[in-house]
Structure formats: C-alpha cells, structure tokens
Amino acid sequence: MSTFLLQSVIFLGAAILIVPFIKKLGLSSILGYLLAGVIIGPFGMSLVGGNGQDIMHAAEFGVVMMLFLIGLELEPKAFWEMRKSIAGLGMSQMLFTTALLFGLLNFTDWSWQTSLAVALTFSMSSTAIVLQTLKEKNLSHSVSGQASFSVLLFQDIAVIPILALLPLLTEGQPESAKDQHHSFFADQPAWIQAISVVGAVGVILVVGRFLVVPFLRFVAKAGMRELLVAASLFLVIGVSALMQFVGLSPALGAFMAGVVLANSEFRHELESNLDPFKGLLLGLFFLSVGVTIDFAVIFMDPVTIVVMAVGVLIVKFGVLFMIGRFFKMSQDQNFLFSFGLSQVGEFGFVLISFCNQLDLIDTVINAKLMAVVAITMTITPLLMMLNEKLIDPFFGVKTKTDEEGEIAEFEQKHKIIIAGFGHFGSTIGRLLRANGIKATILDNNSDRVELLRNMGFKVYYGDATRAELLKAAGAEEASILIAAIDSPDINRQLIDMVRENFPKIKIFSRARNRFDAYDLLDLGVKNVYRETLYSAVHLGEDALVEMGFRKYTAHRQGQRFIKFDEDALERLGEKRHNMKEYVLSMKDEMEWQEQLLYNDLEQNLDLSDKSWDSDALKDNFQKTA
Amino acid sequence: MKILVLFAHPLLEKSHINRELVKVYADIEQLTFHDLYERYPEFDIDIEFEKNLLVEHDLIIFHHPFYWYSCPPLMKQWIDMVLEVGWAYGNGGFALQNKMWFQVISAGGMEKAYNPEGHNRYSIREYLRPFEQTARLCRMKYLPPYVVFGTHRLSREELNEHITNLKEGLRFLKNEGFPGCETDNSNCLNKWIKSS
C-alpha cells in the first residue's frame, strides 16, 4: 500500500475515533485533534514517523483557507468600523508583549537579534484555536470575542512587516542555510525582498478588486457546480502560491483576498464551497501540531521548555489582562479574552522556521521553541475550560454572556432570506427594504445579481437549493425564508431541503398556480401565495368597476373571492391524494364557489349590509308596524 | 361574567399609553382580547364570527383612542356591520339584551378641557351619546366610560395609577357587577373605580 494512503487512513482514522469521544466529554474539538496527534505521533503509538512536519505544511493550508473565509466575513466597512479596537487593542498587545519578552530574553545568552525575533514570534496568538473555540462556544459576538478578533487581526496584519523586517535583522549575521529558503527572491538583497512583498500585496488588491468577480461570473455562466468549487480552490491556492513566491505567509495573502471579495456577490458561494475543505484541513493541522510535539527534545531539557512555556503564557496573559482593564472590559470578559489569547499561535511555527532559515535561530533552539509553541497551543483549550469551570462561576456570568451574544447576533444577522430575486422576489425585497428590513438575497442568475448589486441590494450569487449555501447565508439564525424562485420545481426542491436541514425557519412560498399550491400544502408549507391569484382578482375588481359597480363594492367582492378561494384551497388540498376524488371535488368546488359568489352578491344587497342598506331597515320596521 | 375587549387602534406601535394599558387584560381571567386592526387590516369584518363572540360574552369593552370626538373608523365599521337589525336591535333583535357596554378611552386633552368652560365645550359623556344610544337601542346596559385623559403629558406614575385602577375596577366589575349602571349619569367611571 502506498504510504500516502496509509498515512491518510491513520490521520483520518485517529480524528474520527478520538474527536467525537472528546466532544462527548464536553471538551473542545481542538483538544481532540491535538490528543489524536499525540497518540499517533512518535511519542504515542508511533504510527507516523517524523513526517508530522510535512503534514503540517500541507495542513497549514487549512489556516490559509480559514483566513480567507475570515476575510470574506469581514467587509471593508466592518473592517473600517473596527479600526480603533484593532489599532488600540492589537497594537498595545503586540508592543507590550514583545517589549516585555524582549526584556526578559535579554537575560539569556542569545544575541539581541535572536531575542527580538523570538519576542516578536511569541507575541503572536493562534487565530485557528481562538476563533474556532469562540465559534464553538458561541462567543464570537461577545465583547471578549470581538476584542480577541481585533487583536488577532492586528497580528495577522503585523506578520507582513515582520516577515519583511526579519531579513533586515540578519544583515550583520553570517549568511548560511539560505538554500533552504523556497522564495524566488531569497537570494536577493533584503530591500528587494521587502519591495517584492509590497508588490505582491498590491497585486492581490488590484486583481481581487477588478478581475476576480468577472472571472467568477464567467465560470458561473457555464452553470456547472464543480467548476465553481474548482474556481474557489484556484483562488485560494493561487494567492498562496503567489505569497510563497515572494516569501510571504500565504495565510495573510488569503486574508487580504478574502477582504477584497467580501463585498462581492460570490461571498456566500465561496464560503460554502471552501468551508468543508477548511474544516478538514484545520483538523489535520491541529492533528499535525500534536504529532510534531517532539517529546525527545522536551525530555532532554524539560525545565527550560516548561519555564519558557509557562513564562510566555504568564507574560501574554498579564499584558492582555492589563489591556483589557485599560479598555474597561468587565472582569469575566477580560478573563476570557486574556486566557484565550495567551498561547503562541501557528504563525509562531511559520516565523520560527523562517528565522531558522535566516539563521537568526539555531537548530537546537528552533526545536525547543517549536515545542514551546505546541505546548502553549495544547494548553489553551484546557485553560479555557478551567476559566469556564473555575473562574466564570465566580462572576456568575454564564447567562449574561449568552444574552449579550444573542443581542449582538440579532443585530448582525439578517433575519430574512429571499431565495430567487426575479420579478416576484425583487418586489418583496423592495417592499421590505422600503420599510427598513434588510433581507439576505440569493439568486443564481449572475447578470441579475450584478445589476441588483449596482442598485444597492445585498444579493449573493448561488444555488439556493444547496444546504451549505443557505447555511452560509445564515439560515440557522434566520426566522423567515421566502421561497420566490421562478421554477416551481426548484422552489419545491428548496423547500424540501430547508425543511430537512433548517426545521426552525418559517417558510413563505411563492406558488405558480392552484396545482403548485397543492403540492406546497402537501409539503406542509402553511404560507402559500399564488402569483396568479391576487393580481388577477385585482384586475377583476377593476373590470367590475368598468361594468358599472361602485369601487368599494367591487373591492369587497374581490376580498371575499380571495377568502373563499383560499379556504377552498386548504380543504381541497387535504382531499386531493385520491386523484379521482380530486377531479370530482374540483368540479364540485367550482360549482360551490360560483354559487357562493352569486349568493354573496345577492346577500350584499339585502342581507350582509344591514346598516348601510336601507331596504333591510325598511323590511324590519315594516314587521314592527 | 365573561369579558370581551374590542380593541381598535390604527397605529398601536406609536401609542405608548395603549400598549401599556392593554397589558391589563392579560391578567384577567375569562377575558377575550380582540384586536380589530390586527384581525381586519382590510376592514373585511367577519360578521358571523363577531356575532358569535358577542353572544359568548357578557361585558363588552370598547377600548379605543378618542379621535375627532369619536372612535377610529374600523370600530365604526364594526358597529355598522355587526350590529344587524333584527339581531341586535329592531324587530326580533334581542341577541345582546342585558349585556354591558363599557368604553375604555384614551384622550389627548386634559379632563378640564371637556366641560362648558374648557375648549372642547362638552363633557366626554356628551360626546359619547351616540355610543350610549347605540347600546340602549341594542337593549344593552351602558356603563359610564373609563377615560385616560391628558395622554400627551401623562407621567409614568399617572399611567401606573391608571393601570392599577383599571385592573382593580375590572376585577370588581367582573365579580360584583355595577349596581347603578342603568341610572348612573356620571361623567366617567374613573372616580367610581377608584373608590371601589
């Protein structure tokens, strides 16, 4: 058997066996992946050799995708609104942590360049762990969740200048091991590398802004799903390749590409296409972190490593806690924020190996630092658990955080989704918008999507019958789904899928005609609107007026007609499973309806409007007389 | 005694006072709250449904704001459509006999504006004569109204007092009935409710 297949079986198998078990114990899935990694790693059952590092490189792609997706979630506008907390929280965290660590590391025998590089590296926290944990615990919209996100974002951005500056630190140092460097520009002087970095960022901005959307539209027109998945992957991998070419973190490039595309109509489509890949790769990444914990190195010098790991955690926690204080975070939120970000993140791995390539860090220290990073990452879920179990109860915060989360959720997620934005759906959308209700709109006609977006609607391109797309559009939080797709068959498919996957959402459905409406009633949809009913009745009313009716009488006749027709529809819908009976009762119903309407018209004159119709009064008074 | 509240307000979302007032009804047993504008946005009143509701209840509360010295149009439409000759009044019209008609009203003006010296010139009771006579014609007992005056400048404390009064008054009416209702010609039920 090829090693690739064998390795895949081991990795996937470990994840499948251990993660659900850990989840069942109520622990974070990240801990499960890490534990699975340790178990199959050299220290545990030794099922995988020393190639955890290789797997990690492959799996780092999960982090790349995650950052791309985070970028997608973050519209430039939202990004702009967060600028203060990003700059304030993020910069102070980075500056103080780096300064403090640098000060402490100066007591070692390392050169100041090495100390600075390590201090910078250790000031990074783990985007993967923190965001995944926040999401699992539904804390993304809490105060601490938002603050954590700001800090992580600042760090992600700071990686660009750090990566650009690190080579400058080496100028005074012996240059070796440059051959390990994969970057095309590695042999160039530092300033050329710096320029190439800036150039690459520019390319992402320009291409993302002007070329990607027309490109995706072109692909979408082919009408094949797998092509769009391919295009999504192509985008992310393309950006990563470009970044690697200039020696930058692919994750950052992906994040920027994501932000650039956050406003485009393909946002939800890209999200739903990439989400499964991201989840799997991220899991694999955590697994490989577990595998790479080199226990041999730890046992060689356990004291140093434990001291460093604990020291880093304490310093980072302390700095974060003081910042939280300064920014007037409540105690409970501050603990969550400070514990959450206290680890060294996956950028640590990237930066450490980069420093190693630059000869800023020698191989022995390199291994130790890697171990420190892995340990702090592994400990985080445990710290979060301790916080939840031991410190939180102290503040009695559980319900409060939940409530805050819910309120923020309500403000941020659109509560209505409209699927299908043709003439029917767009009328609904306009009425809602005119009343200040913003709906998330899904449509699969890319020309129309473009047109409507230009008119200021929030429209996304995609096939609404796919559960993942609806999920990405917020179907789990939305209260109403308006099924307004033109084709009755596709509309039914959509409703089938929604009822299965999002049973809580209320469905308002468009129906082409009476027969279509019966099908929808059969599916259990309560709110069915026949496109042929209301406007036809309205026209009919006007025709009555032309025939000499008073307008108000004609209008009331129309109202009554609709009411009778809808009542009849429901009654018939229940009966119609027996087709024969249906045909019969359909005819009966027609006669009944005709009779009713006829009666009603008669009644209108001498029965229904007893106060308005003087004949009724005269009759009654005659009886008295 | 079963109570039916016929509530008519065309813009309830903007009426803080009435949103608070109607909460009173939730606390009273054997009471049906019927929000007319919510049920009939197109004025297409279901006459049979309304007649059945009336038959099932004993005390009928007409709760509405006082617009142009009268009720909102949907309530007038309701009166026109539901109180049919030969059913509610006239020959053979005994369906509502001996039921009680009680109006709960919110008025922007102060109580002192509703008298010969005030700028509205007549008392609230006089403005409500058409309702009183409608009740009389339907062989119903007309209670003096409960009026929340001066809603434009009502303090929270005053509103709370109204809420308590109305709640207690309804409980009392429900259990004891109103002894002098047929002869009582007092302006409002406010004072009676307060003292009961």
Enumerate the spans of chain B where pLDDT stays under 50 for 5 or more consecutive residues.
none
* Total number of domains of chain B: 1
Query: Which CATH top level class of the largest domain in chain A fits?
Result: Mainly Alpha
The tally of beta strands of chain B, per DSSP, is 6
Main sheet record of chain B? 6 strands, parallel
What structural category arises from helix and sheet content of chain B?
A: alpha/beta
Percent helix among the residues of chain B? Answer: 25-40%
Reported CATH architecture of the largest domain in chain A: Up-down Bundle
By oligomeric state, this entry counts as: heterodimer
CATH topology term of the largest domain in chain A: Na+/H+ antiporter like fold
Q: Pair with the most extensive interface?
A: A-B, 15 and 14 residues
Largest beta-sheet characterization of chain A: 6 strands, parallel
- Structural class of the secondary structure composition of chain A? mainly alpha
The number of strands of chain A is 6
The gross shape of chain B turns out to be: globular
Descriptive overview:
The complex is a heterodimer of chains A (625) and B (196). Chain A contains 28 helices and six strands. Chain A has 625 residues and is mostly helical. Chain A folds into three domains: 3-406, Na+/H+ antiporter like fold, CATH 1.20.1530.20; 413-532, 3-Layer(aba) Sandwich (Rossmann fold), CATH 3.40.50; 541-625, no CATH class. The longest helix of chain A is centred in the middle third of the chain and has 33 residues, at 363-395. Chain A starts with a helix and ends with a helix. Chain B has nine helices and six strands, in the order E-H-H-E-H-H-E-H-E-H-H-E-E-H-H. In chain B, strands 1, 2, 3, 4, 5 and 6 form a six-stranded parallel beta sheet that branches. Chain B starts with a strand and ends with a helix. Chain A binds chain B through residues 556, 559-560, 563, 608-612, 616-617, 620-621, 623-624, and chain B through 42, 44, 47, 79-81, 83-87, 90-92.
